[in-house]
Design a protein that fits this description.
Layout (H helix, E strand, L loop, with lengths): L26 H18 L3 H30 L4 H5 L3 H13 L8 H17 L16 H5 L2 H22 L5 H5 L9
Helix pairs in contact: 1-2, 1-7, 2-4, 2-5, 2-7, 4-5, 5-7
């Protein structure tokens, strides 16, 4: 005996709705967290060599933070100009992006611009460091690189991040993300 005929009701099945959403990973937020974590560890580290390693991490991640920050906002708000902006130096990106976003300028003479250049140069000094023997002066107890790997310079890099981001939102008049308030870069959402 043949199997019974089955009835299929395909015409009554509703298609499944597809929901699409977009998500963005802001790496500058990851980097600012890494800066903060390594800075805290450096502040509390009793062993000099480990503290210096933490300070190197702070400087490298701080430079990555301000570059990924300016890149993100340039890509998001200046997509037509992004290819040209991407080729600029870190400090020039800050000048150009702020000017293009709101016609306000960050001067090359401004303290913030000088701080960004200082951070970029410090990062490059560490990343492209050429180890060599140094002659120490009578009053000098350590090499030039170790003289720079101090907690004050690590603190300075974190302050440069906060000042850069705060100034960016002040000059561009864009709305800052909540992360900016969480880091107390801008104290009050009404500002």
């Amino acid at each position: 005996m043949p199997p019974p005929k089955q009835k299929y009701f395909f015409n009554k099945i509703k298609p499944i709705e597809t929901v699409t959403f977009q998500m963005k990973t802001s790496l500058w937020i990851v980097f600012i967290n890494l800066v903060n974590e390594n800075l805290e560890l450096a502040r509390n580290e009793k062993y000099l060599e480990i503290r210096r390693r933490r300070i190197i991490s702070v400087v490298v991640f701080a430079a990555a933070c301000i570059e990924s920050f300016i890149n993100e906002y340039a890509q998001e708000h200046l997509s037509n100009e992004w290819e040209s902006i991407d080729r600029l130096s870190l400090s020039d990106k800050w000048l150009v992006v702020i000017k293009l976003l709101n016609k306000k300028e960050l001067s090359r003479k401004a303290e913030l611009f000088k701080d960004i250049v200082w951070l970029k140069n410090f990062r490059n000094y560490l990343i492209h460091y050429k180890a060599r023997f140094e002659s120490l002066k009578k009053d000098q107890s350590t090499t030039n690189i170790n003289q720079r790997l101090i907690i004050e310079n690590a603190e300075k890099t974190f302050n440069i991040i906060k000042k850069s981001i705060k100034t960016f939102f002040e000059l561009t008049e864009l709305d800052p993300p909540d992360a900016v308030y969480g880091w107390k870069i801008i104290e009050d959402k009404s500002k």
